[in-house]
Amino acid sequence: MPAFPTPSQYREAVQFPEMAFVDPELQQATPEVDALGLPRAISGAFATVFVLQGRTHRWAVRCFHAPVPDLAARYRALARHLARHPTLPLVAFDFQEAGIQVEGQTWPLLKMDWAEGIPLNRFVATHLEHPEVLERLIEAWVALVAQLEAAGMAHGDLQHGNVLVAGEEDRLRLTLVDYDAVYVPALRGRKSPELGHRNYQHPDRSEADFGPWIDRFPALVIYTALQALRHRPELARRYPLDEALLFRAGDLYAPERSPLFQELAAITPLQPVVKLLQQACHLEPVQVPRLADVHQGAVKEVPGRRRARRQRVGRKARTGFERAFLPGLLGIGMLGAGLALMGGGTAGLAVGGGGALVALGMALVHYQRLPIVRRRRRLQRELAFFDELLERLRQQLVQVEQERRAFLERQQTLRQQRLEELREEALYDRLKYHFIDEAAQFEGLSHKVVIRLKAAGIRNAYQATPERVARARQLSDETRARINLWRATLVARYQHELPTRLSPAEELRLERYVRQRLARFDEERQRLLERMQAQQQERAQIAQRLEALPSLTFGRYAGYLLRICALPSLEQAPAPPAPPPVRESLPPVSVSLDETRPWWEQVA
Questions:
Q1: Could you tell me where the beta strands, DSSP code E, fall in 427-585?
Q2: Least confident range of 178-192, 263-277, 305-319, 542-556
Q3: pTM
């Protein structure tokens, strides 16, 4: 399958909605533009969003630049679920498998009703000094999460950018956007197409964690942050609300070593919920309690609290399986030996070998569920994800550079092309008033010939091009020659009236066009470099966190089960140092034009 279009290619296509979109409503809509007059694009990891305004409606159009597994099937399942639950806080959408055309090929898009509101983090930042507003926001958040759970579904990527807040301060309305990772019952058994924002998701979550409970951990993270900011708004100065609500991925990976967790634990009203969140970081995602129960105070401690402590590894207490493994294995061995001594050698070997295989299989299952193993697996997947994302960004950067060079290479022809367009427009203004009936008078064409020409769409001299005349039916070669001569005579008559050079206004218009195109290339290039720098920094943090995490092989775990060795401890792992800033060496491109020289001699 060919690579998906880049955000830059989508942007070029959306400039002409009537040609880009298949949907009639989108064809008639107008895209919102930036300062350069180009469609305003909001790019994410998997899609670029454009805002289009119709006569009476406004839409957000998501164009995908990375494949999402089973995209069409997932949105069809979500549409059927929303039909049964029409009051859910989601906006109406229409998934179109062949919705946009880019360079001759069609690609899927998601047409969504425009959702009014501002992102959650911006709303919180503007109401830090109004605890009563934050309290109402907390109540609205708890109600929204409960509504999703009651419908048996989960959003899959709860984070500040996907929660929009609207309405008056005394009556808030929350709306969820971005449905690529949504879970509904019809998707049971599938894997999650993405793992969501790292600053909100459970540190051990994997693609296999996909069920109606996947929102519980991020919902608890947001709830805890809102409660903390309601009590201590000054926290926003030390923990900026730009890419998170207080908590970062590092806090969730190692809450015991997190300065933020330590600071929040010292705030008396927050201690219960902070403790619950800290414990939840070490449970499996499915074990995290429901937010409604936490809010009502029904959960004082996370179920399996002892297990949460044990799962930090380096524990003194063993699980029931771990305590029973060695005695069970010895028992199976003794049973097999007993059967062999009683004359059942084959039966004894079968019992002993089969029991050992079953025990090893159970040990492997328990090993895969250990937090330290799940966490290493998650970090390794995140490294692979960022490597893939960085490679896509590099490819997009190369493509932008190629497009810029191609634009510069054809600068010399732009002026001539514009002059030809103006000459053609001037010729049209003069020939359109010479109707085909005039040719009949001068060239002796019959009335039937005139009727046939009009039927072919040739009504004046401008339309009577040799190509169109050649396609007209039931005309003799002599008739065609007469019509062509008539038109050529008129063209020669007006030749001296056609412009031979661009006017000063046209020169300025072309110069402005070139400046805008180059500025657009520079803006896109700089945006890609900034995204690459941010992603490189995040990748460096993940790599350092993975390096600091103790390694636990299945062999060592088997040795632990046989009481030969101890397990490594998450709590003993050193905290990874802060990564140095990663900078891209490519500088931004600047274009400076000398006012004393023509622009077309300078931009090349």
A1: none
A2: 305-319
A3: 0.69
Partnered with residue 282 across adjacent β-strands are none
The residues near 45 (Cβ < 8 Å, ≥ 6 apart) are 66, 194, 389
In whole angstroms, give the CA distance from residue 339 to residue 226.
Answer: 64
Distance CA 353, CA 325 (A): 15
Q: What pLDDT was estimated at residue 284?
A: 86
Helix (H) or strand (E) segment spanning residue 13? helix 7-14
DSSP codes joined into one string, 179-209: -TT-B-GGGTTPPPS----TTTS-TT--TT-
* Alpha helices (H) in 287-319, listed in sequence order: 291-295, 305-310
For the chain, helix (H) and strand (E) counts, in that order, are 24, 9
In angstroms, the CA 79 to CA 71 distance is 12
**How many Å apart are CA 349 and CA 352, to the nearest integer?**
5
Q: Are 548 and 574 in contact (CB under 8 A)?
A: yes
Give the pLDDT band of residue 582 (cuts 50, 70, 90): very low
Domain 7-113 fold is Phosphorylase Kinase; domain 1 (3.30.200)
Instruction: Indicate the helix (H) or strand (E) that contains 537.
Output: helix 504-548
Which listed CATH number (2.115.10.20, 1.10.510.10, 1.10.10.60, 3.20.80.10) goes with 118-310?
1.10.510.10
Average pLDDT over residues 438-464: 84
Q: Which helix (H) or strand (E) holds 236?
A: helix 235-238
Is the sign of the CA dihedral 535, 537, 543, 549 positive or negative?
Answer: negative
Tell me which residue has tokens 């359109």. Answer: 432
In whole angstroms, give the CA distance from residue 210 to residue 565. 35
Collect all residues with Cβ–Cβ distance below 8 Å to 347 and sequence separation of at least 6: 339, 340
CB 338 within 8 A of CB 330: no
